[in-house]
Write a structure and sequence with these properties.
With 261 residues, the chain is of the alpha/beta class. It contains 10 helices and 8 strands. It has one domain. Strand 5 and strand 6 form a beta hairpin. The radius of gyration is 18 Å and the shape is globular.
């Protein structure tokens, strides 16, 4: 059994197509990290042990995922305490981002580039639901390939939970339609996708789940990378990128990394 944890970065309250929102939050990033269920206990022990070694002021590492969390956005911004403790900041980021490959995990990113999406379509789909649709399709493919089943644990957000539930309900009952492009023949084929391998969806609070906290780091750091103009030579991006599910050609684009349009 695979356990998927999901969190997002780039949510914009109100009209996501407004100029202010397109400038402030140009990308909607949904991250999913998956682990075999039996890997979770050693994974969680590892994170708590590594964070404890850093000696972070005000953080009881034993309570991570048991009522407290380190917010990925605070690490990404690097202000306050983190500005004065760069080595500890990097240690936290490395611990969370490096945990996926270390414990046989697999990561997925589903990204909506909002401005071209809003300009390309007359009635553009909401980025939240569209990103969820894309990542859900990739989860199902991954589970079919590995002949496994999965449970999805979503970060609870009261502002969007009803909309997320509606998307999940539609996908689970009606499936989705995926357009495949053949580079050889330059043709498009639309295939219907049923979802039979994801057996459960549930919602949790990030402070009570280290798995959601890992997904938070993947979503937030990916969003930071994109907003910063995709800087070359970013060590932590290389760690993140190396954790993404790949196609047979060894590259994650189209599978572990989906950017639309």
């Amino acid at each position: 059994m695979q356990i998927f944890f999901l969190d997002e970065s780039g949510y914009a309250a109100g009209d996501w197509k407004s100029e202010k929102n397109l400038v402030d939050q140009p990308f909607h990033v949904l991250a999913g990290v998956s682990f075999p269920a039996d890997k979770l206990p050693p994974l969680y022990d590892h994170i708590r042990e590594e964070i404890a070694k850093l000696g972070i002021e005000g953080v009881d590492a034993k309570k991570l995922g048991k009522g407290i969390e380190i917010k990925a956005r605070d690490i990404a911004r690097g202000g306050g305490y983190w500005a004065r403790n760069e080595a500890k900041r990097n240690g936290v980021r490395d611990t969370f981002l490096g945990s996926v490959k270390k414990f046989d995990g697999t990561a997925f990113l589903s990204i909506i580039n909002k401005r071209p999406h809003s300009e390309k379509y007359g009635s553009p789909a909401d980025p939240d639901g569209l990103a969820l649709n894309y990542i859900y399709e990739r989860f199902e493919r991954f589970l079919k390939e590995s002949e496994d089943y999965g449970i999805c644990v979503h970060d609870q957000n009261k502002k969007t939970e009803d909309d997320v539930q509606k998307v999940l309900s539609d996908l689970n009952t009606e499936g989705s339609y995926i357009m495949y492009h053949s580079r050889v023949f330059d043709t498009y084929t639309i295939k219907h996708q049923d979802f039979t391998r994801i057996v459960e969806n549930t919602f949790g609070h990030s402070e009570a789940s280290l798995g959601i906290q890992i997904a938070d780091f993947f979503a937030t750091q990916a969003n930071t990378f994109l907003k910063d103009g995709r800087p070359a030579g970013s060590g932590w991006w290389k760690t993140l990128y190396a954790s993404l599910k790949t196609e047979p050609n060894g590259k994650p684009e189209g599978y572990g990394y989906k950017e639309f349009p």
